[in-house]
Amino acid sequence: MSPDQAANIVDAVDRLPLPPVRRRGEQTLLEEAGRLNATDLQRAARHLASVIDPERDEREAEKALDREERAAHLQRFLSISDDGVGGVRVKGRGSLEDAAALRAALLLLTNPEPSVDPRTREEQPDPRDHGARMWDGLIRLAQHALDTSLPPNSHGTRPRVVVTIDLSSLADAAVGYRGADSPAAGTGVTEDGLELPPPW
User: Fold this and answer.
1) Distance CA 123, CA 57 (A)
2) CA-CA distance, 63 to 57, in Å (whole number)?
3) DSSP letters spanning 96-120
4) How many independent structural domains does the chain possess?
5) Is residue 91 part of a domain?
6) Is residue 150 one of the residues assigned to a domain?
7) How far is the CA of 147 from the CAs of 103, 198, 199, in angstroms?
8) Which of 14, 15, 86, 149 is the one with CA 20 to 30 A from 157?
9) What are phi and psi of 49, to 5 degrees?
10) What is the pTM of this model?
11) Which range of residues forms the domain containing residue 35?
12) Residue 64: how many CB atoms within 10 A of its CB?
């Protein structure tokens, strides 16, 4: 028996599921080694494995997919960097599930949107290519999240200012009262001294 034949038998036996099956498979391949060369013996070993354990290839494929998905998840990242010419570059990596969620969220926001020429009143096709529509959809999605306070309360909630004043101060603000040593009535002053004008 040549070293290549022996290696083929060892590899094939390692692929078989249970010790009794391995022993029988090993005996069968040893018998075949006397009449088959290394290439034919390797082919016979693959056939033997597929007959004895037909679901092995499917299990191996599932395991490989699981490993790839775990690797993609562990290597996920997103970076937004200044490109030096007034824009940004976005680069990232994620899993196939991440991509499916992104595509589903962007699907309705990336349809072509025809425009109307103001001079001829004729409908013009959307001048944006698919990449531009994807970017615009992502920005619209982010703006929608901000406008509807979708980010978690602990991070990313839009800043809000709540002002509580009494009725007389509000009335003074409305008529433009100015005190001797105070800013104009109706003008708010922040802790760092910034004056905010009234909303009217």
Assistant:
1) 55
2) 10
3) HHHHHHHHHHHHTTSS---EE-TTT
4) 3
5) no
6) yes
7) 21, 23, 20
8) 86
9) -65, -40
10) 0.44
11) 3-54
12) 10
